[in-house]
Amino acid sequence: MPVDVHLVAVRDGEEGPEVLLSRRAGDVYAAGYWHFPSGHVDGAGEDVVTALVRETREETGLVVDPADVRAAVTVHHRSPSGGARVGFFFEVRRWRGTPEVMEPEVCDGMGWFPLGAPPEPMVAYCRAGLDAYRSGGGVALHFQEPGDPIAHTPDTDRLHLVPTTESFGSRTGREVRRRAAGSPAGRTRRVP
User: Fold this and answer.
1) Of 79, 83, 77, 76, which is closest to residue 139 (Cα–Cα)?
2) Contact 42, 57 (CB under 8 A)
3) What is the per-residue pLDDT for 191?
């Protein structure tokens, strides 16, 4: 199953948070649609954070320190044609440089947009990641049906947020983590 990485670059705008989006162009899937700067993990030797840092520089010219990458949301996606993939969306709030189109053969526009008012048309899969990010979800499903459009439309929104343990009022996840921190596996022992 292909693994994608998506840059959710966030900055403070005059009217609130803004995200960086690019418009796909040329002979690529969804040409003319807005999307996060993104790409694929290059084989088993590359981890998702390294892939994000590399793709960010290749597509936007921005230099991101891996220490500034934050996990935002993971989306398990199925396209209208039935192909499946997993996308890791990472929030980045610090970088060096100014974003610019670095690959004009596949991107003809780039800009900052209000977090709550992204441009249209936007790739449905990307919009699912953005909406999951805005809602604070950690894992989301986005399984499109045959015949669904590539672009996000409210009447074919297939986003489903996977609840966390805290969503059910359960303290189980927090309690397990708290106990693990106090367990021998969670501590370092001194050797006399």
Assistant:
1) 76
2) no
3) 40
Query: Which one, of 120, 128, 121, 124, lies nearest residue 150 by Cα?
Result: 124
Label each residue of the chain as H, E or C.
CCEEEEEEEEEEECCEEEEEEEEECCCCCCCCCEECCEEECCCCCCCHHHHHHHHHHHHHCCECCHHHEEEEEEEEEECCCCCEEEEEEEEECCCECCCCCCCCCCEEEEEEEECCCCCCCEEHHHHHHHHHHHHCCCEEEEECCCCCCCECCHHHCCEEECCCHHHHCCCHHHHHHHHHHHCHHHCCCCCC
What confidence category does residue 192 fall into, taking pLDDT thresholds of 50, 70 and 90? very low
Q: Look at residue 176 and tell me whether its pLDDT is greater than 60.
A: no
Beta strands at 16-24 and 107-114: parallel, antiparallel or unpaired: antiparallel
> Looking up tokens 């989301």, which residue turns up?
140
Q: Are 107 and 59 in contact (CB under 8 A)?
A: yes
Report the predicted TM-score, pTM, of the whole model to 2 decimal places.
Answer: 0.86
Rounded distance between C-alpha atoms, residue 178 and residue 181, angstroms: 5
